[in-house]
Backbone:
C-alpha cells in the first residue's frame, strides 16, 4: 500500500483561524498565495500585514504575522508610516476595490508616486462585498449590483477604473501586474507576481502592486463556476492580464529604469 | 536640565517644532496649512539631520494615517495642522484612540466654520475636547499660553501620550503660532526608545506572540470593555495631570476663566481691575482642558460673586466652566470670533459689568 504523502502542507504564513469568507470566494486563495510567498521568502517574522475595511477586514486574524487594521482606504498611508519608521520591516496592505479604488484612491496613487517601498495586494471583484453588493469603481458596464439594479451605465456612473494602467503612468510604480484567480495556471501565475511584488520590496526597489481579479459568487448571484466563467469571458476583456512594470527585470536587463 | 537650556527669540511655530524634537519625536507627517506652515518647514529642515523622517503627506487624511502606522511601529510621532486640517484628521484620530496609540497633534486654531480665515480663534475647543472623531474616545488636551509653554507642552506631550496610551492634542491659535518671544529651549537628546511591547515589527516568535494593532471589536462586551478602559485612563489622567494657573486677588469678587492667548489678555485686565477699579479679580487659567480643572473653578465659584469667561469663540469653553460652577455664581461670557481678539479694555469693562450686576461694585 502506498504511503500517503502531504505534498502541499498548510502554509506557516496563515493562522488556523477559520476564515469568515463566503463559500466559493477567492479571498482564501489570495491569502494562501501570500502566505506561501511569505514562508518561501522566510519573512513571516518581519512582516506586518495591513488589514483594511471590507470583506478582508479580519485579515489580521488570518495572516500569521504582526498586523495593523487600517481605516477604510488608508492602507498605503498606514503602510508608509510603518515603513518609514522600520525600513527593515516588510509591509503589505491587502485591499479590495472599494477600499483601494474608491475611498482610498489618493493614498494608493501617492504611495506609488513616492515609490514607497511597500507591497499592495489588490483584490478586484468589481463589487462592494461586505456591505452587500453595491457598485464599485471597478464594476463593469452593464453589471447589475444593488446600487446599479438596471446595470451600470456610463450616463449614471461613468467608466470602470483600470488601476494598473493608471498607476503605470507613474515612474514610482516599480512592479505592477494584473492576474486572475480562476484557473490553476492563472493561480500559479498570480503567485509568481505576488512573489515578485515582495521581492521588489526586499530589493528596496519601491512600490509594488498586484491586482487579482477575484470572484464574488454571493453578490454576483452566480455559482462559483459561473463566476469564474464571468471573469474569463467578461472581466479579462476589460481588465487584461499583464505584467505592466517589473523594475527588477528591467534592471537585470540593464534597460531604461526611468520608465 | 534647566541650566542647560539655551535662550532664543523664536516664533511659536518654531518653538513647537523644536519642542517636538526635544520630546523625542523623530517622525513627522504633515500637510501645509496656514498658520502653522513653519512647523513642517522646520521639521523638513531639522529631522533629516538627526536621523529622523519628515514626510509631506498628500492630505491631512493621509498624514494622520501615517501617524497611525508610525505609532503602531513604536515611534514617537507627531503631526500639526490648523482647524480644517484637524477636522479632516478626525477619523484617523478616532482609530488612534480606539487602537490605544500614543501620538501628538498640534492644532494652531484659525477662524471658522468653513474655510473661515487665518486669524486667531479658540473655536475648536469642542473639536479638541468633544470631537476626536467618532466614538467614546477623548484627546488629552493641553493649552499653552506662551511661546515657552508651546515648546514645553509639546515636548512633554510625548511622555503623557505614552503614559496613557492615548493621543495628546496641543491646542493653540494663530497668534501663538506666529508671535515671537524669548524661549528657553530644552536641549536635544537621544531618548531611549519608548517601551511599547505591543508595537508591531520584526520579532522572534519564541519571544512573543504576534502583535495586532486594531480597533475592531464586534463583540459588544469586548467593545464596552475597551471604552471602560479608556474611561478609567481619563479618570486617572484627571487625578494625575490636570493643570492650571491662578493669578490675581486672593479674595476675589470676580473670577475670570480663560485659556491660551485669551488668558494672556486677561492677565493685564486682572491687574487693571484690581489696581484701578478696585474690583478684586482672580484669573483661573487651565493648562489642560481635558482633563478639565473642575475643582479649582468650583472651589472659587463658591467664594466669588461673579464669573467671567473670555474666549475666542461664541461660547464653547464657557460650557465646561458652567459645568464646573454648577450654578454657584453667575457666569458671563466675553466671546469674540472670526479672528478678532478683545482688548484689555474690553475685558476690564466686562469685569466691571459683571461686578455691577453682582452688586459688588458701584458705577
Residues:
Amino acid at each position: 500500500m502506498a504511503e500517503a504523502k502531504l505534498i502541499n502542507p498548510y502554509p506557516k504564513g496563515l493562522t488556523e483561524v477559520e476564515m469568515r469568507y463566503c463559500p466559493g470566494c477567492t479571498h482564501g486563495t489570495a491569502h494562501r498565495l501570500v502566505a506561501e510567498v511569505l514562508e518561501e521568502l522566510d519573512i513571516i517574522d518581519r512582516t506586518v500585514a495591513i488589514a483594511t475595511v471590507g470583506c478582508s477586514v479580519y485579515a489580521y486574524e488570518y495572516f500569521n504575522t504582526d498586523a495593523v487594521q487600517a481605516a477604510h482606504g488608508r492602507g498605503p498611508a498606514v503602510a508608509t508610516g510603518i515603513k518609514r519608521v522600520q525600513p527593515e520591516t516588510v509591509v503589505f496592505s491587502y485591499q479590495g476595490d472599494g477600499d483601494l479604488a474608491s475611498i482610498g484612491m489618493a493614498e494608493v496613487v501617492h504611495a506609488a508616486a513616492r515609490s514607497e517601498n511597500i507591497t499592495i495586494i489588490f483584490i478586484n471583484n468589481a463589487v462592494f462585498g461586505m456591505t452587500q453588493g453595491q457598485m464599485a469603481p471597478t464594476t463593469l458596464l452593464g453589471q447589475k449590483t444593488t446600487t446599479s439594479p438596471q446595470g451600470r451605465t456610463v450616463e449614471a456612473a461613468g467608466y470602470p477604473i483600470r488601476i494598473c494602467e493608471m498607476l503605470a503612468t507613474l515612474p514610482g510604480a516599480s512592479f505592477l501586474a494584473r492576474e486572475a484567480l480562476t484557473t490553476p495556471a492563472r493561480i500559479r501565475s498570480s503567485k509568481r507576481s505576488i512573489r515578485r511584488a515582495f521581492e521588489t520590496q526586499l530589493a528596496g526597489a519601491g512600490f509594488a502592486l498586484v491586482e487579482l481579479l477575484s470572484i464574488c459568487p454571493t453578490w454576483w448571484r452566480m455559482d462559483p463556476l459561473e463566476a469564474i466563467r464571468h471573469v474569463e469571458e467578461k472581466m479579462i476583456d476589460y481588465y487584461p492580464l499583464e505584467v505592466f512594470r517589473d523594475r527588477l527585470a528591467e534592471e537585470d536587463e540593464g534597460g531604461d529604469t526611468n520608465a | 536640565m534647566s541650566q542647560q537650556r539655551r535662550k532664543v527669540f523664536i516664533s511659536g511655530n518654531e518653538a513647537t517644532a523644536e519642542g517636538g524634537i526635544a520630546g523625542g519625536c523623530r517622525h513627522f507627517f504633515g500637510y501645509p496649512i496656514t498658520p502653522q506652515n513653519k512647523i513642517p518647514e522646520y521639521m523638513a529642515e531639522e529631522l533629516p539631520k538627526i536621523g529622523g523622517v519628515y514626510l509631506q503627506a498628500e492630505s491631512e487624511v493621509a498624514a494622520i494615517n501615517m501617524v497611525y502606522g508610525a505609532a503602531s511601529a513604536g515611534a514617537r510621532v507627531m503631526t500639526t495642522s490648523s482647524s480644517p486640517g484637524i477636522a479632516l484628521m478626525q477619523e484617523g484620530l478616532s482609530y488612534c484612540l480606539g487602537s490605544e496609540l500614543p501620538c501628538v497633534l498640534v492644532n494652531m486654531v484659525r477662524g471658522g466654520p468653513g474655510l473661515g480665515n487665518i486669524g486667531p480663534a479658540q473655536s475648536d475647543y469642542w473639536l479638541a475636547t468633544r470631537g476626536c472623531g467618532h466614538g467614546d474616545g477623548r484627546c488629552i488636551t493641553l493649552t499653552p499660553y506662551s511661546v515657552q509653554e508651546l515648546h514645553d507642552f509639546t515636548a512633554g506631550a510625548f511622555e503623557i501620550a505614552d503614559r496613557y496610551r492615548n493621543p495628546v492634542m496641543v491646542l493653540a491659535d494663530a497668534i501663538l503660532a506666529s508671535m515671537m518671544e524669548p524661549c528657553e529651549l530644552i536641549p536635544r537628546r537621544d531618548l531611549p526608545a519608548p517601551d511599547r511591547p505591543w508595537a508591531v515589527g520584526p520579532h522572534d516568535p519564541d519571544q512573543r506572540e504576534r502583535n495586532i494593532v486594531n480597533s475592531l471589536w464586534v463583540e459588544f462586551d469586548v467593545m464596552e470593555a475597551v471604552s471602560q478602559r479608556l474611561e478609567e485612563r481619563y479618570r486617572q489622567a484627571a487625578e494625575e495631570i490636570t493643570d492650571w494657573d491662578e493669578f490675581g486677588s486672593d479674595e476675589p469678587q470676580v473670577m475670570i476663566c480663560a485659556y491660551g492667548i485669551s488668558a494672556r489678555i486677561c492677565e493685564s485686565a486682572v491687574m487693571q481691575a484690581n489696581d484701578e477699579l478696585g474690583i478684586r479679580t482672580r484669573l483661573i487659567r487651565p493648562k489642560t482642558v481635558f482633563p478639565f480643572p473642575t475643582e479649582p473653578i468650583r472651589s472659587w465659584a463658591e467664594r466669588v460673586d461673579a464669573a467671567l469667561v473670555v474666549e475666542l469663540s461664541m461660547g464653547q469653553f464657557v460650557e465646561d466652566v458652567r459645568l464646573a460652577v454648577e450654578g454657584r455664581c453667575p457666569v458671563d461670557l466675553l466671546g469674540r470670533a472670526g479672528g478678532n481678539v478683545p482688548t484689555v479694555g474690553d475685558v476690564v469693562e466686562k469685569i466691571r459689568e459683571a461686578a455691577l450686576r453682582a452688586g459688588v461694585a458701584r458705577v
Q: What stands out?
A: The mean pLDDT of chain A is 96. Chain A touches chain B at residues 44-46, 48, 51, 57-58, 60, 64-71, 74, 77-86, 88-89, 106-107, 109-110 (CB under 8 Å).
